[in-house]
Amino acid sequence: MNKLSMRPCVLLCTFLLPTVLTATRCSAGPTGMTVFDNGRAGVSIVLPVAATDAEKDAAGELKRFLDRASGASFRIVTEDQADTGLFVGRTKLARDWRLPPTPPTPQQDEGFTIEVRSDKKQAVIVGTIDMATKFAVYNFLDRFVGVRWFLPGRLFEVVPKHERLTLVDCRMEELPVLSGRKMGSAIGTQRSADEADPQFGTPFVDYSDRKGVRIDTSRRDSIAARWGVRNLQSVDGRLSDTFHGHHMARIFTPYYFQDHKQYYPKRYRIEGAGAPHGGSAAGWQPCTSDPGVLQVALDWGRDFYKNNPQHWAWFSLGINDGGGWCNCDPCRALDEPRGSYRGFAIRTDRYLKFVAQVASVMLEEFPDRKICLLLYSTLFVPPATMDKLPPNVVGVITRDSFQYHDPEYLAEDLAHDKRWLEVLNGNLYRYDYFGFGSLTPRYYPHRLAEDIRRMRDIGVQGVLAEDITVWPMVGPSYYVASKLWWNPDRDVDKLINEFHATLFGPAAAPMARYWDRHEKVWLEKRPGKWFEGLADMVYEARMYSTEDLDYLDRQFVEAYGLAGSDMLIRERIRFFEGGWKLAEHYIREYHLLEQMQAAKAPESTADAARQLLEVIHARRAYWVKYRQSPRFPGQERGPCEDYRYVIEQLGRLEVGRSEQSALSLVALRLASPSPEMYKALLAHYRARASAADAPLIRALDGAGVFELSRATPNLIRNPTFELGDGNQHLADAGHWVTRGAAQQWKQYVSAAGGSFSSDNGVARIHGTDAGMWIQTFPVKPGEQIIGTVEYRLRVDPPACAGLSVSWKDHTGSWLSNYQTVGFDAKDLPRADDWQKVLFRHVVPDGAATILFQFGAWRMKPGQVVEYRKPYFGKIAKP
After folding, report:
1. Which pairing describes strands 76-78 and 157-158: parallel, antiparallel, or unpaired?
2. pLDDT at residue 280, as a whole number
3. CA 639, CA 626: separation in Å to the nearest integer?
4. CA–CA separation, 656 vs 693, rounded Å?
5. How far is CA 60 from CA 57, 73, 136, 160, 541, in A?
6. Contact (Cβ atoms closer than 8 angstroms) between residue 848 and residue 792
7. CA 114 centroid distance within chain
């Protein structure tokens, strides 16, 4: 039985842990107000006569949890039927008591008041708006009854049993420090087991222009999970990406393309170019120097404001994802020569000149409405040529607080945030990346607490998180973040300890150690990196040693032992263990890959490769079973979509390329010196292969590329990287381009944190976080292409090398959505001696150009990767 169960509950407000109190007044009355006693309700729950749906629902929630805590059955009545009780919402009594107070600003409308007058047997629970009234009810249950909602679903819902609840005189007025607090996926019921809140979520938004081009943005995240509302997150759509996100493709739809190609980047104006595609990852930006672009934006803004009168419905001028800025001369003239930042060309000055034009007109016509910018990628850095934007502009700055283990990375972000606050007249919100669908926990509650306090201290207005939630990887962090967003002064360790002690009882200590170890793993000293670990399970796996895995396993064993026969606690432990096992399978598989690639003797190499296939099959079998298991037992109609969305739709466990790269190395290592061993290994894989193993078989069979290459001409220009005498034009000698270079290659070209060089037929990359040697070739869909190169990398992980291809269409845009046959050799490990690697592909539909590229990732200053003997060929069709 829970240690809080069946105890009297006489609560004094002075004894409660406060959140953000703008005013508090508490005193002990002569007798107090008895809410319930010994299984009997002492008061009713009272609603306004003309209660809103949200107020009715709030009263229903109050009844639900008071009934469960007391064993009583509370009545819900209207205030014309009762003079005493718990008055919920904007009742006449609340108005008589002059509640709730007027919000300080239109955006700060989430405050609530709880006031108890025990001599009158009356308590008012009311918020400034309907959502805030729900906040007031949930805060009442949290403070006075001890109800907790640690994660979605009944499994993590805690409702202590009490014999008696008596309230004394008290008045609390609360206002969150951050106005607007939202986790995107965590409150979307499609990836949460929790029930839906019937009132809240993204509202219907009319986003159509005067010409009838309609974009329906109303259905995404249209319902909010109860869990988010109960933990006081802003769930009424105020921070929806409809109002701040990537929206240029929504405004500049293909409707305009036929008659106004000049609205689009210069590359789309060539003869025969098709209309640029839309979507959030459009990969292009409008030509902001064209006067017609300004007019279209103004027309859309006016239409949006007229059809969406909510004061927090901001008109978004958020840039499209994927860059793709126009390079016409008038646009380029708007840029300041500022280079790049974190791998993105700086376009801030160009774009803000356009934004200021739109905002100045809108300020005159709609002085109370806002225009919102997504300060992302090319807009990270504050402007050099503009002191302030018009006061109607709001900025949402994208940040990854997970990287603040690096003090230099933090200092840069903090300096930019402070400058943006000046430029935006204080109208700055945060867009944080809580996770990229990571299959290991991005767990950092203490750094997160520090960051939330910094946001409060410098004046950031609110926060929303892109979380792509995988619930077993969350642990206490989302609960802690919700509490700290409301009040950053809460003690993070007390919140974490409460989580473990309440959910796991006698098993709290090993479960706390389990999460502490994850935090320790991810605190490893390393440079901060934008989008660290995005869709990169290899990167995550490298953070964990086999000792870490064994330690984490021991904590579960100990926790089960301490839980004994308590099935509720065991189920909670199993929830986290079950999710972690999927990642652990792969991490152990990764260590086996390293073992296989490090083996010297052919027999050891082949034996490790055989084991690899068995481990891969074990992981797949685990996933097949786990994907159908109820994540939140008893609380869902079908399996929770969190893992299935991340793995099957986002492809976060697409680990095949690492396995393929390893097997291609093994094949090449065995094919020539140990042909019999190679044949036996290939036979072993083929005999045990399923349909899903086809890419692995192709990788292992890839040694045949060398036979093909002998009969296929090498199309590489300048394969020995000759520089010439310095006077000869290099176009005749070769066309190597290095990533980040806007010219033919030279002996040293600046890269992201490093440089390039070549001599004696060897190309090198020095200390770069991400660098490439590249050549391009025309291709046709259906052509078969092969490539090889030799590399040498005398550096341990996480540094790695790779040989790969990328595709572009006939406009020069990246071709990202395609199906192709073949494999690249990426994430290649340390190689003290020259190792030959290969790729093989079939050119996909829509491709007009292939980028043949070999490079390196995650190297530190002073580290070098070397390449020689590049080969690229097209196989003649039989």
Report:
1. unpaired
2. 60
3. 9
4. 9
5. 5, 12, 13, 18, 46
6. no
7. 36
Token couple for 505: 């009882």
Residue 475 CA to residue 477 CA, distance in Å, equals 6
Most confident of 333-337, 738-742, 769-773: 333-337
More confident residue, 163 or 638: 163
CB atoms closer than 10 angstroms to residue 816: 10
One DSSP character per residue, 664-728 reads HHHHHHHHTT-HHHHHHHHHHHHHH--GGGHHHHHHHGGGGHHHHHHTS----SSTT----SSSS
Give the SS3 label for residue 354: helix
Selection from 391, 396, 380 nearest residue 348 by Cα = 380
Which pair of structure tokens corresponds to residue 177?
Answer: 């420090």
Neighbours of 89 (CB within 10 A): 25
Q: DSSP 3-state assignment of 18?
A: coil
Q: What is the DSSP letter of 801?
A: E
- Backbone angles phi and psi of 822, in degrees to 5: 140, -170
Which positions ≥6 away from 572 have C-beta within 8 Å? Answer: 155, 156, 503, 504
The CATH 3.30.379.10 domain(s) of the chain lie at 7-174
Could you tell me if 631 and 639 are in contact, meaning their C-beta atoms sit under 8 angstroms apart? yes
Residues 6+ apart with CB under 8 A from 700: 609, 663, 664, 666, 667, 681, 682, 685
* Cα angle value 226/228/230 (rounded, 5°): 65
Q: Where does the pLDDT of residue 211 fall: very low under 50, low under 70, confident under 90, or very high at 90 and above?
A: low
Beta-strand runs (E) in 305-426: 315-316, 340-341, 344-345, 371-375, 393-399
Architecture of domain 712-875: Sandwich (2.60)
Strand partners, 612: none
Q: Which two tokens stand for residue 476?
A: 């206490």
**pLDDT score, position 191:** 66
**What is the spatial distance between Cα 472 and Cα 571, in angstroms, rounded to a whole number?**
12
Count, in order, helices (H) and strands (E) of the chain.
22, 36
- pTM comes to 0.85
Q: Which of 606, 597, 599 lies closest to 825, judged by CA?
A: 597
User: Which of these, 785, 789, 780, lies nearest to 875 by C-alpha position?
Assistant: 785
Please list the residue range(s) of the chain that carry CATH number 2.60.120.260.
712-875
Per-residue exposure over 233-244, b if at least 16 CB sit within 10 Å of its own CB, e if not: bbbbbbbbbbbb
What is the 8-class DSSP label of residue 314?
P
> Which CATH class name applies to 7-174?
alpha beta
Pairing label, strands 148-149, 157-158: antiparallel
The span from the CA of 871 to the CA of 713, in Å, is 9
Strands 428-433 and 463-466: parallel
Task: Please identify which residue in the block is written with the tokens 């203490």.
Answer: 446
**Residue 24 reports pLDDT greater than 50:** no
DSSP state of 756: E
**Which element (helix H / strand E) includes 595?**
helix 567-598
